[in-house]
């Protein structure tokens, strides 16, 4: 019997437009999607996938490259692809009732800095989940999606909270800082987050009440484990 339901919200973006007008191909990052899905399903939860318009984002090919994503990446790619295939058409974000879910997970890839950061449907969903004290998890570029949650006056609902996210240093090391319209960690700090930085590309997780964040792909498994422990 299922313990409950968890919602994974994906970006719908397949391109990240750069400041020079060039288009950088993006998609979901396999480990950030697969590791939480695996942990939650093993713990007995049903996991649903949703995105803006129900659009299925492609795989970020970097996350399938062992030189970039580590030797384990093939396992994560296979798990993510199978999970998405078995789930079928993604749910549409604007049709989601967050009351149906016990927790919300926001994986990365660069997509969230393209669409989710300003998605009003996601903003309403996260505001309700936060108000109800439900675990909200975001990893790597996933914390960009938290920026969508604002009050009636346009103030960011997660200002003042402790969190981590893909750092400016990691963005530089990855080769995507130059030409980025904005850098995630800097933007979070500018808008009032207490951004806590760990060592580049090493697992680093922060828990602040019901908010669970991970800095990079290596932090994905711990993110899910921490959320599952909180749900117990």
Could you give a quick summary of the protein structure above?
The chain has helices at residues 30-42, 66-69, 73-87, 120-131, 168-174, 184-190, 220-231; strands at 4-9, 15-17, 23-25, 45-51, 91-92, 103-106, 136-139, 162-163, 194-195, 205-208, 211-214.
Question: What can you see in these coordinates?
Answer:
This protein is α/β, with parallel strands linked by helices. 30% of the residues lie in helices and 18% in strands. It contains seven helices and eleven strands. The longest helix has 15 residues. The protein is globular, with a radius of gyration of 16 Å. The two termini are 16 Å apart. The relative contact order is 0.17.
The number of distinct β-strands equals 11
Number of domains: 1
In N-to-C order, the SSE pattern is: EEEHEHHEEHEEHHEEEH
Percent of residues in helices comes to 25-40%
Shape annotation: globular
SS-based class: alpha/beta
Family: Belongs to the peptidase C56 family. HSP31-like subfamily.
Keywords: Glutamine amidotransferase, Lyase, Stress response
Pfam families: DJ-1_PfpI
Domain DJ-1/PfpI: 32-229
């Amino acid at each position: 019997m299922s313990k409950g339901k968890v919602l994974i919200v994906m970006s719908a973006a397949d391109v990240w437009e750069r400041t020079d007008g060039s288009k950088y191909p993006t998609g979901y990052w396999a480990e950030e999607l697969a590791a939480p899905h695996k942990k939650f399903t093993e713990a007995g939860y049903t996991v649903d996938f949703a995105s803006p318009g129900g659009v299925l984002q492609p795989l970020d090919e970097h996350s399938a490259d062992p030189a970039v994503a580590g030797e384990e990446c093939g396992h994560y790619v296979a798990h993510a692809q199978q999970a998405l295939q078995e789930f079928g058409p993604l749910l549409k974000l604007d049709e989601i009732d967050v009351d149906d879910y016990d927790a919300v997970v926001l994986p990365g890839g660069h997509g969230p800095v393209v669409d989710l950061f300003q998605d009003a449907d996601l903003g309403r969903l996260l505001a309700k989940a936060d108000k109800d004290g439900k675990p909200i998890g975001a990893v790597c570029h996933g914390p960009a999606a938290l920026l969508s949650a604002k009050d009636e006056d346009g103030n960011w609902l997660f200002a003042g909270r402790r969190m981590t996210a893909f750092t400016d240093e990691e963005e530089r090391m990855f080769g995507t800082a130059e030409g980025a319209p904005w850098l995630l960690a800097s933007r979070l700090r500018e808008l009032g987050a207490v951004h806590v930085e760990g060592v580049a590309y090493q697992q680093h997780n922060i828990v602040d009440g019901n908010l669970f964040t991970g800095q990079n792909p290596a932090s994905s498994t711990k993110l899910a484990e921490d959320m599952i422990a909180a749900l117990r």
